[in-house]
Structure formats: C-alpha cells, structure tokens
Amino acid sequence: MSKIRLTKEFKFEMAHALAGYEGPCRHIHGHSYELFVTISGEPIADSNSPFFGMVMDFGQLKLIVRKQIVEEFDHALVLHKATAPDQINEMGEFVGRLILVDYQPTSENMLIDFAARLKQELPENVKLHSLKLRETVTSFAEWFASDNE
Fold first, then answer.
1. Which listed residue (13, 25, 42, 90) is catalytic?
2. 92 phi, psi to nearest 5 deg
3. Which residue among 29, 42, 71, 75 is the active-site one?
4. Going by fewer Cβ within 10 Å, which terminus of the chain is more open, N or C?
C-alpha cells in the first residue's frame, strides 16, 4: 500500500509578546496565523469501514486541530508565564483570553507545542508528518517529524 500525505489549513488570530527581545516584537502585537497540518498514512483498505480509501477523514482532522489548537489560541494573548505577571493581573478582563506558557511564544516554540498536542490525538494509523505556521505574509516556520525522531 502507498503512503499518502493529507494537509488541512487553519487560520486564527493571536497576540503575543517576546519578553527580552530587543526589537519591536517585545511589545504586545498580533498576527493572522495560518497553520498547515500534514499527516501521513496508508488509505484504509477495509471495504466495510466508512473511511474506506481514506488515510483520515478531513472532518476528523479538523475537529482535532480545532479542539487542540484553534479554539484555545484564537483571539488569545500568549505570553511566557514570567512576563510581567503583576501588570497583566492589573489589566484584568481587558486582557481577555490569556494563555501563559512555559516557553517564549515564538512561531518555532508554538510549533513544538502544537506537534506534541496533535501527536497525542491522532489515530494510531496516522502520523503527524509536518506543521507549517505562517506568521506574516512573508514569514513562516516549519516542523517536520523526520527532523525530530
């Protein structure tokens, strides 16, 4: 049987700040992110399966990615947990959806986080092949399973 790759694209809006960075990204700012999730596997050969001929139903992949990433990060402010906690607490509801993470919220580190989340949720016969996170029209980061084995 042949290995096939499937890719699904997702979009979400998110703000972040890079604590300690010397450029303008040290300040809170937002991006319109585009996330490309590529999985690989063999099409299901069981003719009695409702997913016969599919590696995975695109709808199932969509549900997993939306639950693990998009619904959590969309319209959220993501900061390293050590970033100005007193000032953030003083802002209260104005901050809205705040996610404090153990890492600097760069595209690179977010991809590592996203990969870990998705690998846990995919069916056994499906492997996470790669992730691509576009931060701006001209800039993106990529994660490949083959680079991380």
1. 25
2. 50, -130
3. 75
4. C
Q: Is 72 a catalytic residue?
A: no
What does DSSP say about strands 29-41 and 127-136: parallel, antiparallel, or unpaired? antiparallel
Contact by Cβ (8 Å): 34, 11:
yes
Task: Return the CATH superfamily for domain 4-75+106-147.
Answer: 6-pyruvoyl tetrahydropterin synthase/QueD (3.30.479.10)
Q: Please, are residues 6 and 39 in contact by the beta-carbon 8 Å criterion?
A: yes
User: Is position 25 annotated as part of the catalytic site?
Assistant: yes
Q: Is 129 a catalytic residue?
A: no
pTM for the structure as a whole: 0.93
Residue 97 β-bridge partners = 76
Residue whose C-alpha is closest to residue 108's, from 140, 71, 72: 140
In tens, the pLDDT along 18-49 reads 999 999 999 999 999 999 999 999 999 999 99
